[in-house]
Amino acid sequence: MLAGFGEDHGLPRHQAIALGRCLGGGMGQGLVCGAVSGALLILGLLPPGEPQDETRCRQEALMRGAQFREEFSRRRGSLLCRDLLGVDISTPEGRRQAVEQEMFSKLCPALVGEAAAILEEVLSEGAEATPQRPAAETTR
Q1: Which of 6, 26, 80, 87 shows its CA 20 to 30 Å from the CA of 116?
Q2: What tens digit of pLDDT does each residue of 93-131 get?
Q3: Best CA proximity match to 118, nearest among 72, 84, 83
C-alpha cells in the first residue's frame, strides 16, 4: 500500500517500503491487516498542509480513515488479520497453517487489492470534495 500509493503523495518508494516492513501480517501478530494500516498511513499524508493547519489536516485524515475502515470492514467483515485469514498467525500453529495453505501468497494479495480499491475510492471522493487538489490517479 505504501509503495503503491506513497510516491503520488510525496513519499519516496524506498522509504515507503521501509516504513511498511513491520505492518504485514497485522504487525506479525494477527492484529490490524497491514494493507489497512498502510492505507491509513497514506490517508495521513493528505491533505498536505502547513504546520498551522495540523488540526484541520488531522480531522480530515481521521474522517477519511473512518470511511476507509468502515468500507473495508463492510466488505471483509473485519480489520484484523487473524479474522481475515481465519488463523492466528501470532501462534506457531497458526503461522504454520497459514504458510501450508499459502494464505500469504493467495489470500493476502486479494486483501491488498481490495484495500487499494477502497483507498482509491476514498481518495477520489476527497478530491471531488476539495477541487483545489488534483484528483488521485485511478489506475495502478
Answers
A1: 87
A2: 999 999 999 999 999 999 999 999 999 999 998 765 543
A3: 72
